[in-house]
């Protein structure tokens, strides 16, 4: 894909590649083995990312971010995808939802996230409401000018204990032609508030060391100044961000697939059985051909989507197609790489098994493959009234 990138983006790519080599790749085995990123390593990654301009590179320059457009960010995310989320998540890309902050919130939340003084979590998923977002049980009810928040969230992920969470809760119900519909509102909820409990949650075998948290709210009182955006419009806010998040998943999947493909190719060319390299057996060679075609198609889908996003023309179904296509391509590539490596593919001594484990998550988070297919199907049938 690099034959057509601009000089400016080439510089970005060189920066992120050097950063990967020096700051991230040397630590991935240790982090996987430990199941955590030691705090001093995380802080070192943060500090170095600030020095080279990768920290908050996704946000506009007028809020202190790096001002990279979506096409440039896709190149960056593609490179990050070659290593563990546990490591590259320390290079903050604060959620763009925070751009919905009002002036006072920008000072209290957005600016410190850009400078690295604060970290946020995006808290939508609940134990009983994963794919079915509207099944959420978290509520916020009015009490004078304040809101009283109750409920719980789980699988809420980040590199380290956050300073605040962007929490989605139902603030009422609307009657619509399709039946009652929850009004969902986003709130900025500070860690440490009375009634707000946050604990490390389940440990994931993909991206070991990337943490998930469970959040519980028991009559948490939050002021009117903590509402993010407009009451009842939280899902529109979330949706805008989730769309780009799905494209970043696609880009990272392409990066990881490229790394796996390189490993598989080297192995196929050097491992000999029956007196010749296994790549010379058509079963292996054709596998490499299919992996290469899948990656090419996935890269083109990401390129198309970020061009749409840069032009302000990205639709939900575009992002859904990228998410499902790229994550499923990566899973085929990862599985085929294990197959080409044979038994060695599953041994801890080689990184193949780790990348294979890491790949599996991509079909699940940010909306499962099934949910992406629902979004695509809806975009096809709804115009026909079906
Ligand atoms: C490591 C990790 C980090 C995460 N980080 C965050 C985070 O920071 N913030 C956040 O809010 N969430 C986060 N999530 C949650 C993630 O988005 C959800 O796990 C995901 O949306 C799926 O929800 P679920 O796990 O509850 O699965 P479920 O919704 O229970 O789904 C189980 C299965 O049923 C299928 N299914 C469900 N409904 C349908 C349907 N209508 N049609 C067909 N199939 C269906 C699903 O596709 C899936 O295969 C994270 C998850 C993980 C694992």
Automatic annotation (TrEMBL):
Domain named Acyl-CoA dehydrogenase/oxidase N-terminal: residues: 7-117
UniProt keyword annotations, A-Z: FAD, Flavoprotein, Oxidoreductase
Molecular function in Gene Ontology: acyl-CoA dehydrogenase activity; flavin adenine dinucleotide binding
A Pfam match: Acyl-CoA_dh_1
Residue ranges occupied by any Acyl-CoA oxidase/dehydrogenase middle domain in the UniProt entry: 122-220
Source organism of the structure: Hwanghaeella grinnelliae
Domain Acyl-CoA dehydrogenase/oxidase C-terminal: 232-381
The name this protein goes by in its record: Acyl-CoA dehydrogenase
Recorded family membership: Belongs to the acyl-CoA dehydrogenase family.
UniProt feature coiled coil, ranges: none
Cofactor(s) of this protein: FAD
